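User: Sequence in, structure out. Go.
Assistant: Echoing your sequence, followed by the structure tokens.
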Amino acid sequence: QVALVESGGGLVQAGDSLTLTCACSGRPFNNDYMAWFRQAQGKEREFVAGITHQNLVLYGNSVRGRFRISRIGANNTIFLQMNKLKPEDSAVYYCTRGPQDSRSPRAYSIWGQGTQVSVSS
């Protein structure tokens, strides 16, 4: 009944910036934690950033200092501002939600369809 829809991906050069958006539709979520994950071809899904209802933020080590997560309201829309992009950031980026801040993708059951980010050197 609820849905998460990612947008904003594209093909960019190394050093460029992109902002991803995850929009929620349907019934509001009961959970207060939302997060971004990414999955490169042939690799496991990786934690990128998360944000709590209190707007506390968490970042994966590979993106800390370059990416910023933010939200509007509790569970309506979240953003991922990506700066100084690197080729190794290339992946499909997914948003999700859950009852607790987990860095494991197996802790989540609802995902968006993903948006592709491709960074050339």
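User: And one key feature?
Assistant: The radius of gyration is 13 Å.
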